[in-house]
Amino acid sequence: MLASGNSSLHPVSFILLGIPGLENYQFGIAFPLCAMYLVAVVGNVIVLHIVRTDHTLHEPMYLFLAMLAVTDLALSSSTQPKMLAILWFHAHEIEYHACLIQVFFIHAFSSVESGLLMAMALDRYVAICFPLHHSTVLTPAVVGKLGAAVMMRGLLWVSPFCFMVSRMPFCTNRVIPQSYCEHMAVLKLVCADTRVNRAYGLFAAFSVIGFDIIVISISYVMILRTVLRLPSEEARLKAFGTCASHICVILAFYIPALFTFLTHRFGHHVPRVVHVMFANLYLLVPPMLNPIIYGVRTKQIRDRVIQGCCGKDP
């Protein structure tokens, strides 16, 4: 059923299939996905609470970590509740505007997460390469401006292709063969020339992720050069340990993200079930792992969690 709106035709709703090819196992698959989502929510809420209430943690790394926790909560919550409803209760239908909102949230907050990882790499670069100037270069005001710039970039870069797709006519087919609304998946249902949309999608992705990866790579090359020049082996190990958690987070985000992005456009021979599972994990694994990795690797946060669990004062 199509509805008329501002010179374009769009369906009243879309049908999300969930995980095509694993229909008989979807009910069971939902349990580990739900567990991962709960870990992501609880972990990121704990990180936010610790950073907010402990004023000794109002430093650049922890402020960026708090921003990352907010982003992870938004990113995972934009897809997981609906996904679980599909897998458990067969609630496959999603209203048209809700689908576009989901597209916007997924891509906007993915961009924000990438930008925050870049900002955290810059923070590690300044902290290790210019330790005496770290507190004067990355003041709370500068951290706030970086966070605001990353957020604005995500909103401004993503808004155009959401607006463009909302103005296009759709075919009678309204089935999306995955668990959530993603830009390319929705674009495939459009009955019009989508080359401009696809080109802008590629431009937005590569200008954001490409730029961030370049900055992250340069930062860590400079960090590695500085660390290898340290005279003490203990100091080198400590510096490597400081960066290890961040590198794990970067790999956990970019590897599945790039696989999902490239498969949507060029991976026509990749089995659909593999693509859909990676697409689901890409929005769930980083939000789940980030608080765990930082909680284990960051002594200050680990100590606060232990103190809270044991009821001890700091």
TrEMBL record:
Function in brief: Odorant receptor. Putative odorant or sperm cell receptor.
CDD domains recorded: 7tmA_OR52R_52L-like (cd15951)
GO molecular function terms noted in the UniProt entry: G protein-coupled receptor activity; olfactory receptor activity
UniProtKB keywords: Cell membrane, G-protein coupled receptor, Membrane, Olfaction, Receptor, Sensory transduction, Transducer, Transmembrane, Transmembrane helix
Subcellular location: Cell membrane; Membrane
Organism encoding this protein: Mustela putorius furo (European domestic ferret)
Record-annotated G-protein coupled receptors family 1 profile domain positions: 43-294
Gene3D superfamilies: Rhodopsin 7-helix transmembrane proteins
Domain of life (superkingdom): Eukaryota
Segments traversing the membrane: 29-50, 62-80, 100-122, 134-158, 202-227, 239-262, 274-296
PANTHER family listed in its UniProt record: OLFACTORY RECEPTOR 52R1, OLFACTORY RECEPTOR 56B1-RELATED
Principal location class: membrane
UniProt protein name: Olfactory receptor
Family: Belongs to the G-protein coupled receptor 1 family.
A cellular-component GO term for this protein: plasma membrane
Topology versus the membrane: Multi-pass membrane protein
Pfam families reported for this sequence: 7tm_4 (PF13853)
InterPro entries: GPCR_Rhodpsn (IPR000276), GPCR_Rhodpsn_7TM (IPR017452), Olfact_rcpt (IPR000725), OR51/52/56-like (IPR050402)
Gene: LOC123389593
